[in-house]
Design a protein that fits this description.
Elements (H helix, E strand, L loop, with lengths): L2 E7 L13 H7 L10 H12 L38 E9 L11 H10 L4 E7 L2 H21 L4 E9 L5 E6 L5 H12 L11 H19 L6 E5 L10 H10 L4 E7 L45 H4 L4 H7 L5 E4 L11 E2 L6 H4 L6 E2 L16 E7 L4 H10 L2 E5 L3 E10 L12 E5 L3 E10 L12 E10 L15 E11 L3 E10 L4 E8 L4 E2 L11 E2 L14 E4 L2 E6 L1
Parallel strand pairs: 2-3, 3-4, 6-7, 7-8, 14-23
Antiparallel strand pairs: 1-18, 2-11, 4-5, 5-6, 9-10, 11-12, 12-22, 13-15, 15-18, 16-17, 16-19, 19-22, 19-23, 20-21
Helix pairs in contact: 1-2, 3-4, 4-5, 5-6, 6-7
């Protein structure tokens, strides 16, 4: 269905995309400013925004069938750090999975992680120390002053407080909230009441699955009652141990679609695959185990490995992620560092202290020798989650994540991505990532892709070369009868473009043809170093990512980017 063409051009300019919001509106929408710090006029405006559903959880992701694309919005203005808007949004790189000395297996101070993330270009970060008894008792309280101090010290990076939830009956997940007076209180109660480690609820039982849903309900109710401005949950390294069953993922999304919005498409710990003696010699993401007693029995052996550094659920065309998208479920992917101990760093955990008593380790000290046994990178050094944000604010980043305006990359493979689906020949703005384009049945639809190539060295000091871009398309068939389904038969790579360049901008147009049924499209790109037919066959995915080799998987030699989807729905 359809064909494509492309052309190259070099363009390093930015077009003006509108004037900034007036200061009163900006202050009213900035939820880091408490109500009592606003002027009467600003407070009145904030109340108006709340009544209109334009703050916090008011901007929730609807199901695909109820989502219109291209809603009128004030274009984004330039943000701190010299960030300029593109296609009406600030595309802010970020990381929602970062550990500190307040984790039982962490080392670094909050400010260490934030300074590095800021230096590597991140516009937002989430501190997610491990949930557990000690963290719930004192860790949530202890880390907060460090986060507040980092927010003041590094003003052009937004720093959220969150935690890594031990999901009852499942794996780990990021839970984070928008800043506010009750962020600590709410996270503490959530962790004490719903953490699988705290509640001894790790086993794969219906009761524990219900406890996970209850935790999501608690977050949603906390937002509804304005106890906190907003909250989000994303599943972390979902295939690593096989604990996140398909029906649990569907259950989280169905229970609270404004809270449970996605998963790590690529896990952290990407340095773990660097071969010995120069690296740890393990599996990328530490995906080097196998099934256990609580693993979902239907998952195949290859699901416990990564593919081009990406989780099996995401990397398999026609696999679990696509099965959710084919149902019309908005479920987004991210890519994060999971930074605990950084590869090549000389810091070591400070001596003395008692983690169980103090809720933290002592500050790190210089160890003298680079740690080549560590499996992590600094936030922003290798993995990036790019969010299309309407403003430089906590609420706008959360709204962008919730809306699915997200693409991810490894190693700086590309520096920018703008994707639009529109009715051919109509010249309208159309739909971007995470949105739905509604068309008349039989309308011709085209997908345009504008890709800013790398152009300068990444943090490994080479300029990545984008070799190929793939368009992946699937039919939207509605809810699956089997809630443990993890394949869908009508998704495949429909077009590939050879690129072979590393400067300027390339533009491609894929023509879907006349659309007579609901479909979705998503993108994937690669440096072309390691490809193989996909797990569901060459007819579905002729040149997908190869399975990563345990002990021999240098992440810099295998770079990919992925986008979230756009749906195209013909009106009946």
């Amino acid at each position: 269905m359809g064909h494509g063409h492309h052309h190259h051009h070099h363009d390093h300019s930015h077009e003006p995309l509108g004037e900034p919001l007036d200061e009163g509106a900006a202050a009213a929408r900035d939820l880091t400013i408490p109500d009592e710090d606003l002027s009467p006029a600003q407070l009145s405006r904030r109340r108006m925004f709340r009544r209109a559903g334009l703050l916090g959880a008011g901007l929730t992701a609807a199901g695909v069938l109820g989502t219109e694309a291209g809603a009128a919005a004030t274009p984004a203005a330039a943000a701190p750090g010299g960030r300029e808007p593109k296609d009406g949004y600030l595309w802010l790189a970020g990381d929602h999975h970062i550990h500190t000395q307040h984790s039982g297996d962490g080392i670094y101070r909050v400010i260490d992680q934030v300074r590095h993330g800021n230096a590597y270009g991140l516009g937002w970060m989430v501190i997610t120390d491990h949930g557990g008894t000690t963290h719930a008792r004192i860790g949530v309280d202890k880390v907060n002053p460090d986060i507040v101090a980092a927010r003041k010290a590094i003003e052009d990076t937004l720093v959220f407080q969150g935690l890594e939830w031990n999901i009852p009956a499942a794996e780990h997940g990021t839970v984070f909230v928008a800043p506010g007076r009750r962020e600590v209180e709410t996270l503490k109660e959530f962790e004490s009441s719903f953490d699988g480690s705290v509640k001894d609820a790790g086993a794969n039982t219906p009761q524990n699955e219900a406890l996970a849903i209850a935790g999501l309900n608690f977050l949603a109710e906390s937002v509804r009652r304005r106890r906190i401005p907003d909250a989000l949950f994303l599943a972390n390294h979902p295939s690593r141990k096989g604990l996140d069953s398909p029906h649990e993922i569907r259950g989280w999304r169905d229970a609270q679609p404004s809270i449970a919005v996605g998963m790590e498409g690529a896990p952290g710990h990407q340095a773990a695959g660097i071969p010995k003696p120069h690296g740890p010699g393990g599996g990328r993401g530490y995906y080097d185990g196998g099934p256990g007693a609580d693993s979902f029995p239907g998952y195949p052996a290859e699901s416990y490995r990564t593919f081009g550094g990406f989780d099996w659920m995401t990397a398999t065309v026609g696999g679990l992620w696509d099965s959710l998208l084919a149902e019309g479920r908005p479920w987004w992917i991210t890519a994060n560092s999971d930074s605990h101990t950084v590869y090549g760093d000389t810091a070591r955990r400070g001596p003395g202290g008692d983690f169980d008593a103090d809720g933290r380790y002592e500050d790190p000290v210089h160890g003298g020798v680079p740690n080549t046994g560590a499996g992590d990178f600094w936030p922003g050094f290798y993995s990036r989650t790019h969010v299309g944000s309407r403003a430089f604010s906590y609420e706008a980043v959360m709204d962008g994540l919730r809306a699915g305006r997200v693409w991810v990359d490894h190693g700086g493979l590309i520096s920018g991505l703008v994707v639009r689906a529109r009715t051919a020949g109509h010249g309208q703005r159309g739909a971007t990532l995470g949105e739905t384009l509604h068309v008349r049945r039989g309308d011709r639809v085209e997908l345009t892709m504008e890709i800013a190539l790398a152009g300068r060295p990444n943090w490994a000091q080479f300029v990545p070369t984008l070799a190929r871009v793939d368009v992946i398309q699937g039919d939207v068939t509605g809810p699956a009868s089997d809630r443990d389904a993890f394949t869908t038969p009508d998704t495949k790579v429909v077009q590939s473009y050879e690129v072979g360049g590393n400067s300027g901008t390339v533009t491609f147009t894929y023509r879907l043809g006349r659309v007579d049924r609901p479909v979705y499209v998503r993108l994937r790109g690669t440096d072309g170093n390691r490809s193989a037919p996909g797990l569901l066959g060459a007819g579905v995915d002729p040149h997908g990512p190869q399975i990563d080799v345990h002990g021999d998987a240098d992440p810099w030699n295998d770079l990919w980017f992925y986008s979230n989807p756009i749906w195209i729905l013909p009106r009946r």
